[in-house]
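User: Quick one: structure for sequence A, then sequence B.

Assistant: Sequence A:
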Amino acid sequence: QVQLVESGGGLVQAGGSLRLSCVASGLTFSRYTMGWFRQAPGKEREFVLAISWSGGRIYYADSVKGRFTISRDNSKNTVYLQMNSLNAEDTAVYYCAATPYGRDGVVHTTTVYDYWGQGTQVTVSS
């Protein structure tokens, strides 16, 4: 049974930072591109960042470029999302997800992801 478990969310002031973690089990982690998505109330789930199986390719949403970074540790089956310079528009539930695909333009879409975590809430106070 595949499980993705996110942690690290919480309440932070605007301008602050948070680091999210996602631990995967039940799959060959190093064979999957890992993505982070977010969903704000009343909005569709949107792509944030993704990282290829080796960590060699990273895919960004324009809204977070220069503020958020993604990394992974295949020895720990873990992917990280470092979020800096947070603002109120970053408030959302953040989800990690796993996909066997790794092409730009593909990893931005929710439908190619086979597995999802339960999400972790990030709230940025202004």
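Sequence B:
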Amino acid sequence: QVQLVESGGGLVQAGGSLRLSCAASGRTFSNSAMGWFRQAPGKERDFVAAISWTGTTTYYADSVKGRFSISRDNRKNAVYLQLNSLNSEDTAVYYCAASRQRIELVQQLAIEDFYDYWGQGTQVTVSS
């Protein structure tokens, strides 16, 4: 069992930065791939970024490549998402997710059903 709590969201001006954190509890965190998804108002939840349990593999949605960066610290049971060059289209609730499944194809990291546990989300609002 893994419990996830996101933090770090808030209101930021376009072009600004935020760093989201996801604190995990549970003995299986270090063996879990972690992902970030987001859901904008009136839209479906979309994949943002993911990282393997070793941290050696990362995967990003095309819309955030070069602007967002995912990392993890297994000693602290935490995963982070650095958001840079934010624009209004980045406004959404950001969710952290954990998967205990084995990664066979990196594209699996972008699929919601790959993840077993979800946090409650943190709101990011970008003002123009």
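The chain has a mean pLDDT of 95. Residues 4 and 119 are 5 Å apart (CA to CA).

User: Thanks, that's what I needed.
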